[in-house]
Amino acid sequence: MAITASMVKELREMTGAGMMDCKKALAQTDGDMDKAVEFLREKGLAAAEKKAGRIAAEGLVATNVSADGKVASIVEVNSETDFVAKNEKFQSYVADVAAQAASTTATDIEAFLSEAWAPDTNMTVKEALAAQIAVIGENMNIRRFEKIVAENGFVESYIHAGGRVGVLVEVETTVVNDQTKTVAKDVAMQIAAIAPKYLSSDEVPADYKEHEKEILKAQAMNENPDKPENIIEKMIIGRLNKQLKEVCLLEQAFIKDEDLTVKKYVETAAKEIGADITIKSFVRFETGEGIEKKSEDFAAEVAAQMAK
């Protein structure tokens, strides 16, 4: 398979590796992007985590939390341009979508789109979306939603960068006051900034750990070809534990005090407040996460039109 400059560019953006290393990786894997990422990681030339993809799609993330903090939703609605994302009509519409998600019984996007639209029950959510597209004059998409119902505590929300990132955190506690809400807000800000994948290492799937161990083993053997296998195994365990601390919220270093983990911060705060506080779950949406937006070459488009 021919390796193109755009493929090399994409792999560089995904891994942070050098141009020639990316070109070699693609050549070795016959242009398979995922295998090329693993090839670079095995050689120690790429970051431990594959980036979700270029964050290029526009739009907003919005949250909706009930007055008692028991029910909360988070949605991502995409638009074609940042200009529309800043439009008040679009922002108001996204807020309505978040309110719809807070009351929905749907468990997937197809069922959600088929529901009656709360502001006008004569149409479905999908039909209301089409009407908004007609008004705003740009393609839009309700990409995803999540809903959390807190039975023994509350849900805290956090929006970062004007709707670029949104977070919900479910907190289990018998005490709901300004102090426990501050703890929840701190944790939400941590999630927005560091983007953990899991709540704790106990939640990490076994197949994820096994896959990472294989990558780390190849990496360690490439770096230390003369070391015996039992030493390599110890290195793998150490590196995997370090990596899990980076992707698991409760084991991450707390951004406001790196001498503490997030778990230790919550425990310490709970003791000071005199309440049991447990972080039960979280959701983090980032606008355009994993979406590859087509780059437009205006000059080429004009040339193509003129050639017709």
Automatic annotation (TrEMBL):
It comes from the Bacteria. It is found in: Cytoplasm. Residues 81-84 are annotated as: Involved in Mg(2+) ion dislocation from EF-Tu. Its main location: cytoplasm. Gene3D superfamilies: 1.10.286.20, DNA helicase RuvA subunit, C-terminal domain, Elongation factor Ts, dimerisation domain. Keywords: Cytoplasm, Elongation factor, Protein biosynthesis. GO terms for cellular component: cytoplasm. Signal peptide: none annotated. The keyword Cytoplasm applies. Residues 72-289 form the Translation elongation factor EFTs/EF1B dimerisation domain. CDD domains: UBA_EF-Ts. InterPro entries: EF-Ts_dimer_sf (IPR036402), Transl_elong_EFTs/EF1B (IPR001816), Transl_elong_EFTs/EF1B_dimer (IPR014039), Transl_elong_Ts_CS (IPR018101), UBA-like_sf (IPR009060). NCBIfam families: tsf. PANTHER family: ELONGATION FACTOR TS (PTHR11741), ELONGATION FACTOR TS, MITOCHONDRIAL (PTHR11741:SF0). Associates with the EF-Tu.GDP complex and induces the exchange of GDP to GTP. It remains bound to the aminoacyl-tRNA.EF-Tu.GTP complex up to the GTP hydrolysis stage on the ribosome. This is Elongation factor Ts. It comes from Anaerosporobacter mobilis DSM 15930.
